[in-house]
Amino acid sequence: MAISDVTDASFKDVVESAQTVLVDFWANWCPPCKMIAPVLEELDIEIPGLKIVKLNVDDDPITPGSFNVMSLPTLIVFKNGQAVDRIVGFKSKNQLQTLVSRYL
């Protein structure tokens, strides 16, 4: 599955899927966001059953505000339409695998 971009308008449809969804809240000016992007690409390939999407906080600020996203990158795990966990800042591949494996 390829990582896709979501917007404020499409966000609800994406996270309300039955699948576990990891949302990467990011911005172009954020160096840790750029560092974590290749890690997310690897996880997208390696973890079946996980959907990863990205939301640019500068282009679509309503959704990040509704989830109290204060720092970037913020990654929130959604299960059955509910935010169930979050992690803030650059994290290693192993840390991200541990985070999402609890919800698969």
UniProtKB/TrEMBL annotation:
Coiled coil: none
GO MF annotations, alphabetized: protein-disulfide reductase activity
Disulfide bonds: C30-C33
Pfam families with a match to the protein in the record: Thioredoxin
Site (Contributes to redox potential value): P31, P32
BP term (GO), one: cell redox homeostasis
Chain ranges passing through the membrane: none
Extent of the signal sequence: none
Cross-referenced PANTHER family: GEO12009P1 (PTHR45663:SF11)
Name of the featured protein: Thioredoxin
Organism: Paenibacillus beijingensis
Lineage: Bacteria, Bacillati, Bacillota, Bacilli, Bacillales
